[in-house]
Every structure is written in C-alpha cells, then in structure tokens.
C-alpha cells in the first residue's frame, strides 16, 4: 500500500520516482494546449482583465473549458477528459503564468467542480458539472467570513430548515474569488445554527448578491467580493454531502487545493526565472551584462535550485497520488480520488507552504535583478511580486499548514498507521550511546547528499520522539516546536525529492544530469544549514542540562555534512540558464 508520510521511514527508489522528464505524450499534449491558451488568449488580454473586464474573463473561462482544461479529473459523462493528477499538475503550472487567471481557474476547477464531483449526488453532478466543466457557467467557493477565516468552522451563516425540507440561508461570505460574476456558489452554512453543511446555491435565486470588489494588493484581474445571502431558499436536493458533514467537504477540497496551489506556484516561479535571466543577459552596467556578475549568478543559481526542489517534489507527489489511485483498482472515480487526496494531505500542505515561499523568494529576487525597473509598473516584475503574496494567506495560511504538517504525522503515528514511534524510540536509545551509527553510504549516486538526506530524516525522528515524550497530547499547544518540525519536514521532503530526481537523471544518462546534480546538491547543502538551526532551537525549547547537551552532540554528528562548493555549482547553473534564456529543467 502506498502511504502518505511513508517516505520519512522508508527507502525510496530513484528509478520509480515520477519526474518532469518522464511525462507521457498525453501529459505533454495537454500541457501544450494549456501553454498555447495562456500565450494566445490570456496574456494578450491582461490589460483588460486588470481593468476588471469580467465579460472577457467569462469568455476566457468558456474557452478554457472548451479546450478540456477545466475537467482534467472529471469523467467524460460529465463533460470532463478524465486524466490523472500529473495532467492536472501540468495544466495548473501553465495556467498560473498569469496569476489572476490562475485564481479564477482555481476557484472554478478546484473549489467548485471538484467538491461537486467528489461529494455531489448523481442528480447534482448531472445538473451542474456539464455547465461548469465546459466553462459556460462560472463557480465560486464561499467558506470564509469576516469573523472566520482560519477558524472556518465557526462560520455564522445560517441555514434554517423548513417544513418542506428546504433551507433558508442568511449570512455574508468574505473574499470570494469569482464572487462578482459566478453563477454557482458552493456555500457553507450551519443548519439551524449548529450543523456545518455545504450547499450548492445559484446566483439567480432571490436573495443572492455580491458586494463591491475588494481593493487588493494584487490579483487585479481576479474578482474578489463578499457574497451576501438574504433569506435564500435552497431546496433539500442542493445539500452537498451530508447535513453536519460540511467539514469533510471543506477539508478535502483544501487537500486538493493546496496541492494545486503548489503546482501553480511552481509554474509561476519557472516563468519568473526566465524573465529574470533574460533581463540579466541584456541589462548592461560597468560595460558588461549584469548576468556576468557573481552576485547575480548566485541569485539565478539559487532560484534555479529552489525551483528544482519544488518541482521535483510536486511531480513525485503527483506520481504517488496517481499510483495510490491505480492501486485501489477502482479506476479514477470520486471515491479513490478522495482517499488518495486524504492519504497525501501532509504532502499537499508541504506543497502549499514550500510553493508559496519559493515563489515569493524567486519573485523578490526577480525584482532585485531588475533594479529600479523592478519597482515600476512598466515591467512585469513588480506585478508578479504583488500577485504572489496572497499564496501564503489563502488555502489555509502557512502558519495553519505548518501546524497541520507535524500534527497529521503524529496522529498517523499514534494510530499505528505509520511506524514512526518505533523508529523514533530506537533512535532515542542510539542517541544516548556514544557509538550512535551514522547513516551509511547506500551505494547510489550523489552519496554524500544521500547520506545527508538520511540524516535529515533521523533529525525529524529525534525531534518528533523528544516532542511526543516531553509533551504528550499537549504538543498541539506548542506551536513554535511544531513549526520548527514542519520546517525540517518540508526541507527533508524537498531535499529527498530533488535527490531522487537527480539520481534518476544519472540512471537515465539524461543530457542535463550534471546540472540536475548541481541543483540538488545546492538545495541539500542549504537545507542542512537550515535544518541544523531549526533543530537546535527546537531542542533547546524541549530539553535542558545533560539531556540537551547529549542531543546537541548527536545532532552535530548527524549533520556533519562536508560542505560542497556551491559557489561553483550556482555559477554553472546560472551560466547554463542564461545560455538557454529560460529555466533549465523543463
Ligand atoms: C485574494 C483572496 C482570495 C480569497 N478567496 C477565497 C475564496 O474563494 N473562498 C473563501 O472561502 N475564502 C477566500 N479567501 C479567504 C482566505 O481563505 C482567508 O483570508 C484565509 O483563510 C485567512 O483567514 P483570515 O483572513 O480570517 O485570517 P485570520 O484567520 O484572522 O489569520 C490572521 C493571522 O493569524 C494567524 N492565525 C490564525 N489562527 C491561528 C492559529 N490557530 N494558530 C496560529 N496562527 C493563527 C494566521 O496564520 C494569520 O497569520 C480569499 C482571500 C484573499 C485575500
């Protein structure tokens, strides 16, 4: 059985890991369709979209639907094209090259179509999916309220049950993407003020309206409004899922939304590296292109390495989700998809946090490489920078996701679904012994990095074991410890994903295998430093005296990684990127 989180305690074989180099012809074709749609239809329309031309936005949604891009995971009987998660990832990466359209698309495909497909009755699917999947109708997802964002289950919107079985909804939702022009809303409300429940609501129904557009920092080409429900009668047939089970709809949608947000960030980052590189190759100072300066090469090399790790992690995870769906033996139906997304909820949160932070890093450096031109509207760099900031806020803030990552892992360990506790206990005994064994060379390529990644995993086990022993159930109140643990888990999963992809490139004798090794080595070398600092802070918060000293000594031994010459590696990555004029590995 392919399990989420198992990578932490099990060996992963590089020859089986999914990478962008192993996309099928079908994946490449749908990726090309999405790329051409963005290049030919969306990018030329940016100025009008930024002026909030919603009629044009609707036309684009319809064109996107006609190309099959809104229904990659929906069966043909409802108008979809029924592809796998890798296809969804490829499409999301392309459509996010204009973030505002990425948001419109995300609200439609991930937040409206998906919950109706996964939780809808047959009748609901037949009534709503064809219109939404074809893009003839636009969808929006109404969970947040002014008083309940992160704490979404404390929503105040009410659904009063009527004698005939229908419900009357009243309340106000906030910050709703596509709010200004959607036809179909997935709305969360509490039945009789108590049972949190999802409903499908049509804009045409009396009492439904949207408020004024929010004045946002970015995403000006995406509609964000309040959605107001004034005594809206909703038939019983429009309850989505079960009464009182709205949290199941909300949380599962978020699992998928977070994974796809990671994909969108990856697509945006990749494009920004190309933008930064082209500018650096043409902008001259002191008589030469700024791309020839070591300080700029450092930036381009570091941007490439972080993007490489993010992208490797996204494809690896999509491959795992698809393998889990296939292993279920039940085809691509709603149920196996739901189970697979739940299984990989930890990895989805990791994708969301790493994706949104990698893109912010890359877009910040893109502005810096553009100098003064990066700060003015004549160049796209400043717009990308503003647009991306929200990624750390929606789909669960990064703080909430950081709490969820170790939280979900520990829950699985306590339920015995993941053999984390025996592994952590064994390590605790080893740590107390001066003869603690260090991870061994497993004979694979990139031996030093492979050993480092094994050591990162041991650090996670050491900290998780200490935290569980020290705090027990009270660990959930120790947010700083959980956040440090999340940082280490994120760097560990990303490092291993980069390593496995680079090892697979060597096995395949891929033309870029040397550069892929550079990208993976730079990421792992940097991660080792970050992990050591986070682990020291975390241990100091949990232990003191001799116990702390022993643990710190064990940490030092574990992370005794010989530093690589990352300066020369970043230079090689930067020079090759400038020669290509685009991100290297796609
Ligand atoms: C452009 C845009 C589009 C959006 N689109 C949609 C949409 O389509 N549908 C929808 O339903 N919503 C949407 N949202 C809302 C978004 O999901 C919320 O803004 C988000 O969930 C955060 O909620 P909040 O704004 O109430 O912040 P709060 O929950 O008030 O959080 C404020 C700060 O406190 C932190 N915090 C909160 N709780 C905790 C805790 N327990 N522990 C530690 N830290 C905590 C947060 O991490 C954050 O840093 C959108 C928002 C924006 C800006």
Give an overview in words.
With 586 residues, the protein is α+β, with helices and mostly antiparallel strands. It is 58% helix and 9% strand. The strands form two sheets. Strands 1, 2, 3, 4, 5, 6, 7 and 8 form an eight-stranded mixed beta sheet that branches. A two-stranded antiparallel sheet has the order 9-10. Helix 10 runs antiparallel to helix 11. The longest helix is centred in the middle third of the chain and has 37 residues. The radius of gyration is 24 Å and the shape is globular. The two termini are 31 Å apart. The model has no long low-confidence stretch (mean pLDDT 94). The site of flavin-adenine dinucleotide has 20 residues, from strand 1, strand 3 and helix 12.
In short:
The chain is α+β, with helices and mostly antiparallel strands and 586 residues long. It is built from 18 helices and ten strands. It starts with 24 loop residues before the first helix and ends in a 6-residue tail after the last helix.
Per DSSP E runs of 2 or more residues, the count of β-strands stands at 10
Share of helical residues: 55-70%
What is the rounded Rg? Answer: 24 Å
Please trace the helix and strand order, writing H or E for each element. Answer: HHHHHHEEEEEEEEHEEHHHHHHHHHHH
Class computed from helices, strands and strand pairing = alpha+beta
Could you give the distance between the termini?
31 Å
Beta percentage is 5-15%
Low-confidence runs of at least 5 consecutive residues: none
- Provide mean pLDDT, rounded: 94
């Amino acid at each position: 059985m392919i399990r989420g989180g198992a990578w932490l305690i099990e060996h992963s074989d590089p020859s089986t890991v999914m990478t962008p180099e192993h996309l099928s012809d079908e994946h490449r074709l749908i990726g090309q369709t999405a790329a051409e749609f963005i290049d030919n239809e969306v990018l030329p329309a940016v100025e009008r979209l930024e002026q909030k031309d919603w009629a044009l936005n609707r036309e684009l949604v319809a064109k996107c639907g006609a190309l099959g891009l809104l229904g990659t995971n929906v069966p043909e009987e409802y108008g979809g094209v029924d592809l796998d998660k890798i296809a969804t990832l490829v499409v999301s990466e392309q459509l996010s090259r204009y973030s505002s359209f990425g948001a419109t698309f995300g609200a439609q495909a991930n937040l409206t179509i998906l919950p109706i497909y996964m939780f809808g009755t047959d009748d609901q699917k037949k009534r709503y999916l064809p219109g939404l999947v074809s893009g003839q109708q636009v969808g929006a997802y109404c969970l947040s309220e002014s008083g309940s964002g992160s704490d979404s289950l404390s929503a105040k919107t009410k659904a009063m049950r009527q004698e005939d079985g229908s419900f009357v909804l009243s309340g106000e939702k906030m910050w709703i993407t596509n709010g200004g022009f959607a036809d179909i809303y997935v709305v969360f409300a509490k039945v009789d003020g108590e049972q949190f429940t999802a409903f499908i609501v049509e804009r045409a129904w009396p009492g439904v309206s949207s408020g004024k557009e929010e004045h946002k920092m970015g995403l000006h080409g995406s509609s964000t409004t309040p959605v107001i429900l004034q005594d809206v009668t909703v038939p019983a047939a429009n309850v989505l899922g079960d009464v009182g089970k709205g949290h199941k709809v909300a949380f599962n949608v978020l699992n998928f939304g977070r994974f796809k947000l990671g994909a969108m960030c990856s697509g945006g980052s990749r494009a920004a590296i190309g933008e930064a590189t082209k500018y650096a190759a043409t902008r001259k100072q002191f008589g030469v292109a700024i791309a020839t300066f070591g300080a700029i090469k450092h930036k381009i090399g570091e941007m490439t390495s972080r993007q490489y790790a993010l992208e490797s992690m996204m494809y690896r995870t999509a491959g795992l989700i698809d393998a889990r769906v296939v292993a279920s033996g039940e085809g691509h139906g709603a149920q196996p998809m739901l189970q697979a997304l739940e299984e990989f909820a930890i990895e989805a949160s990791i994708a969301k946090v790493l994706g949104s932070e990698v893109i912010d890093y890359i877009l910040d450096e893109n502005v810096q490489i553009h100098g003064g031109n990066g700060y003015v509207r004549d160049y796209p760099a400043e717009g990308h920078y503003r647009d991306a900031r929200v990624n750390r806020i929606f789909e669960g803030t990064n703080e909430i996701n950081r709490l969820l990552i170790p939280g979900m892992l520990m829950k699985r360990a306590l339920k015995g679904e993941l053999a984390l506790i025996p592994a952590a206990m064994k390590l605790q005994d080893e740590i107390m012994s001066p003869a603690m064994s260090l991870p061994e060379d497993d004979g694979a390529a990139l031996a030093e990095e492979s050993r480092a990644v094994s050591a990162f995993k041991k650090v996670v086990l050491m900290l998780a074991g200490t935290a569980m022993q020290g705090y027990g159930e009270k660990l959930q109140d120790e947010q700083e410890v959980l956040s440090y643990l999340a940082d280490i888990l994120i760097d560990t999963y990303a490092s291993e994903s980069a390593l496995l992809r680079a090892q697979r490139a060597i096995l395949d004798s891929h033309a870029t295998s040397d550069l892929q090794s550079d990208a993976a080595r730079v990421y792992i070398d940097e991660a080792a430093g970050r992990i050591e600092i986070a682990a020291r802070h975390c241990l100091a918060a949990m232990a003191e005296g001799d116990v702390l000293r022993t643990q710190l000594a064990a940490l030092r031994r574990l992370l005794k990684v010989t530093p690589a010459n990352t300066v020369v590696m970043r230079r090689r990555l930067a020079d090759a990127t400038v020669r290509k004029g685009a991100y290297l590995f796609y």
